[in-house]
Amino acid sequence: MSGLELRNIVKNFGAVEVIRDVSLHVNDGEFVAFVGPSGCGKSTLLRLIAGLDKPTDGSIAIDGKDVTAISAADRGLAMVFQSYALYPHMSVRENLAFGLENTKVAKAEIEARITDAARMLEIEPFLQRRPGQLSGGQRQRVAIGRAIVRRPDAFLLDEPLSNLDAELRVSMRAELAALHARLKATMIYVTHDQVEAMTLADRIVVLRGGRIEQVGTPLELYNKPANRFVAGFIGAPH
Ligand code: ADP
Ligand code: MG
């Protein structure tokens, strides 16, 4: 089976159950948003998918292959964090190339990918600058660019726009939609902003207390919320 499959995922930190029996299938090329209040387990679930952390129980498969024990680097995924996580002492170009240099990807290919991503994200004029010399929006573009140059099968984005001001967030939202249309890659997008989820996602996964409350298209969730919590969170009448 193609796509990403989460089966009965449980994650405990000590005695605390943070993810409780989450099962989900994400299709190739799908844009899925994880929404829910702060602390409901969105980032934890994303980190488990990325392979940055291991589930306490359950399994994760990509294209039918069990990756539960496979390292983050070998899963073909790229993660974009809210905090950008750029190296301050490196230029934008070096930040983009970092992590690709010691792989099988040839130098010329790395250069071509950087040029392509920089053009796509309109950060070409800043390639020689350091992150500290960029605005928040430009930094977040670089962070997305760093994921793009890896040519991942799926992008995992953890509240990538939440540090940006409202106006920029709206324009970056449109850019993300365009990027998804162009790359045709799977995107799993964590946000606590329901408007972002409603406008960007093919399907929305509503989480509460480490459990899935409902999964559906934005329209399904709006028209047929499973309960008052989902309705309230989505902003649907209830
Ligand atoms: P969200 O991203 O939805 O805000 P998180 O996934 O970051 O939520 O956190 C879910 C819960 O797990 C929170 O109660 C948080 O305190 C707890 N948690 C997250 N990471 C750890 C950790 N490394 N150790 C202990 N508790 C953690
Ligand atoms: Mg989080």
TrEMBL record:
Residues 4-234 form the ABC transporter domain. It is found in: Cell inner membrane. Coiled coil: none annotated. GO terms for cellular component: ATP-binding cassette (ABC) transporter complex, substrate-binding subunit-containing; maltose transport complex. One of its GO terms (molecular function) is ABC-type maltose transporter activity. Its main location: membrane. It is a peripheral membrane protein. Belongs to the ABC transporter superfamily. It comes from Rhizobium johnstonii (strain DSM 114642 / LMG 32736 / 3841). Keywords: ATP-binding, Cell inner membrane, Cell membrane, Membrane, Nucleotide-binding, Transport. This is ATP-binding component of ABC transporter. The chain holds residues 1 to 238 of 359 of the full protein. It comes from the Bacteria.
